[in-house]
Amino acid sequence: MIEIPTGRPLYPQSLKVELGLLRTDRSRERWLVNWRVGDYVELSAARSGFTNAKELVGVQINLYPELPNYAPGISVGVTDLFNRSAHGRGYYLALSYSVPTLGETPLDYDLRFHLGFGFKEMPPLFVGFEIPLTNHLFVLAEHTGRDINAALVWQPIPSLQVRASIIQRRTSWSLLIQLGEE
What we know:
Blueprint: E1 15-22, E2 29-37, E3 41-48, E4 55-64, E5 73-79, E6 90-99, E7 111-120, E8 126-132, E9 137-143, E10 148-157, E11 160-167, E12 170-179
Antiparallel strand pairs: 1-2, 1-12, 2-3, 3-4, 4-5, 5-6, 6-7, 7-8, 8-9, 9-10, 10-11, 11-12
């Protein structure tokens, strides 16, 4: 997704890196790194012009793997582990559910829904969805509990995405690289 956590850990990738730039201010770059450690733990780090260029660290544990079209993936996690942002440390429970995109020309990617519940400094409710338009073009949208974000994603190959996003009412362009496919 764009900013919200999901119930689905990185898979089959083990590392995801996103490098971005806010259109309105080149000094306010944005980068995110997600690293899957083993089968159930995912570490994240981010630096963003949205958070006054502070590095933020989080951890997520997958409690139940997603079974597409049967059962949602369930994860719990902590955002801003070291309590450095204006919002502070937050805790969450996130669920993700996939539905195959069938029809005259089935797609290789599923329609995916995300729902989360936050505690402490995390918004109490956040939602998001991923819609595949083709096998290479996707729409992402989410309500973080504070803002509505959206992105148009072009994926020329499985390990690379180019994203045009509206994040916290600002335009962002980014490149997302996923490594370690099994």
